[in-house]
Write a structure and sequence with these properties.
Blueprint lengths: L1 H16 L5 H15 L3
Helix pairs in contact: 1-2
């Protein structure tokens, strides 16, 4: 349940950053920050 919430959040980030340059890299960086915040 908790992981699906994270997965949805990552999909949301990808959906909203794909327009920008290096969007995949940005999404990966953001996901790492989120994982650190959530202590995964």
């Amino acid at each position: 349940m908790y992981m699906s919430r994270v997965d949805n959040w990552l999909k949301f980030i990808l959906k909203n950053t794909y327009i920008e340059d290096h969007s995949i890299e940005n999404a990966i960086i953001l996901s790492h920050r989120i994982h650190k915040l959530l202590h995964f």
